[in-house]
User: Fold UDP-glucose 6-dehydrogenase from Halomonas huangheensis.
Amino acid sequence: MKITIFGTGYVGLVTGTCLADVGHDVLCMDVDAEKITRLEAGEIPIYEPGLESMVKHNVGTGRLRFTTDPAEAVAFGVLQFIAVGTPPDEDGSADLQYVLAVADTIGEHMQEDKVIVDKSTVPVGTADKVLAQVQKRLASRGAEFDVEVCSNPEFLKEGAAIEDFTHGARIIVGTNSERVKRLMRECYAPYIRLQEKLMFMDVRAAELTKYAANAMLATKISFMNEIANLAERLGADVEQVRRGIGSDPRIGYHFIYPGCGYGGSCFPKDVQALERTARDVDYQAELLAAVESVNNRQKQTLFSKLANAFDGDLKGRTIALWGLSFKPNTDDMRDAPSRTLMEALWDAGATVQAYDPEAMKECRRLYGERDDLLLAGDRVQAVKGADALVICTEWKEFRSLDFAWLKSQLSMPVIVDGRNLYDPEIVRDAGLMYYAVGRGDSL
Ligand code: UGA
Assistant:
């Protein structure tokens, strides 16, 4: 099957590569010529385990190709996937300019009937807007072709994107058209197990499903963070509470890990966008607003714990920071809790000595060269000469630690652990002060 993907960002590249890998002919289009040249050479702009070799392999077979030519892209695929970004507007709503620009391109160049597939995370009603935009463009050319738009939201997690694409919990397709259903079945047919998970529904329900899923997951996290903050004040250990409630299958163990707040390119933006959508239809989404504000507060807690440990004075201190990315197995620092912490530390006059297995380059790109940001070559270098250690991301290599060694390195025996990686008793037995999230007296 011939498939065009607009956008070679995270979603577009993973989708295009996975579809080529099962035998489809895929053409990915991007307006960024430099990116396309790099991709053609098998160089990928993001860190995602397994993706680079998969791109190289499929470029080698000729099934995965890239272009900057819109006419070629539109002519190529029966299915035209839109997988461009929907960054938040100033008011928190999703900015549809890139999605609508693709719709315009399709309307400008199409010479036969097309099916458009919305993969970008877009507010309810966007499929209608895309259709209207294409039709407007067709009318301006005096052309008449049949266009159908369906919604096929993605549920990929960064760091596990290929696995999520090939073994996802479901494929949602929003359409009432039999022709579109047939084509989408054909598209996903090579994934035998996924086929059973293909769920057809109305376009608007599909669009809302995406937001509802992310908002629900974000709610679970904010809920647990709220309980963690309570546990701290009540002298209870939230990790015991987590196990206690997770054992109820109605609650479950997934996504109830308290921490230093959720980050990334999806949860913060999607919760905000759904709240905004609610406002547009005169509904005040109180729970969503609370989920967001609990998260914003949670991102500040690491700094408060550190400030408390240093009696409110962090000026001139050097803080070792392990983990910059918003979660492990990615170099993505969008809305990462590490950023809130670093910025607060700098405001307080402290120096950050940071290490992350993947996100060092990204950190430099975001903050540039500055005297109060030292990027260390490894976790050991990061604590050398530091006053205290903070952990923001639960990378595997941080999970085991020689606490006696750590104590000998730090001027103040303080660990602030935003991911509850260690056994408080063991850390404290080594003579360290351990401030985790929601674990007894770790305020
Ligand atoms: C999220 C969803 O999990 C995907 O299903 C969805 O497709 C994707 O957004 C998207 O909309 O594109 P992602 O942002 O890659 O995926 O990362 P997650 O693994 O969900 O983690 C998000 C944040 O929540 C991280 O900062 C993580 O540390 C935090 N988190 C997660 C917790 O604090 N506690 C948990 O129990 C789980």
